[in-house]
Amino acid sequence: MVLVVYVIIAMYALLTIIAGVSQLIAKTFHVNHFIFIVLSIMMLASLFIHDKQLMIIGLIIIFIGMHIVAIIEGFVMNGELAYSHHIVRFIVHIIIIVMVLLFIK
């Protein structure tokens, strides 16, 4: 199950990197896109932290950063907050944190 948790975190980080890079390519440079990519790389790096508490703290900080950037991006692109998007993102982040708590030693 440990491997499954690592794969889920890696896939989430890689998909976020792909989304950030595609936004950078399709549009003009925005700091938000770059921050998404940096946070995703940090998420990948968190997989190499062997201390469970540090990994959880790192993921929580990364997820908070992703939420903040997503909120800013929503206001910049759409002029409003997409609540369903942020609720789904929050649920995914909670599931990942719970999986790390339960299955990573």
Automatic annotation (TrEMBL):
<keyword id="KW-0472">Membrane</keyword>
<feature type="transmembrane region" description="Helical">
    <location>
        <begin position="56"/>
        <end position="77"/>
    </location>
</feature>
<keyword id="KW-0812">Transmembrane</keyword>
<protein>
    <submittedName>
        <fullName>Uncharacterized protein</fullName>
    </submittedName>
</protein>
<feature type="transmembrane region" description="Helical">
    <location>
        <begin position="5"/>
        <end position="25"/>
    </location>
</feature>
<keyword id="KW-1133">Transmembrane helix</keyword>
<feature type="transmembrane region" description="Helical">
    <location>
        <begin position="83"/>
        <end position="104"/>
    </location>
</feature>
<feature type="transmembrane region" description="Helical">
    <location>
        <begin position="31"/>
        <end position="49"/>
    </location>
</feature>
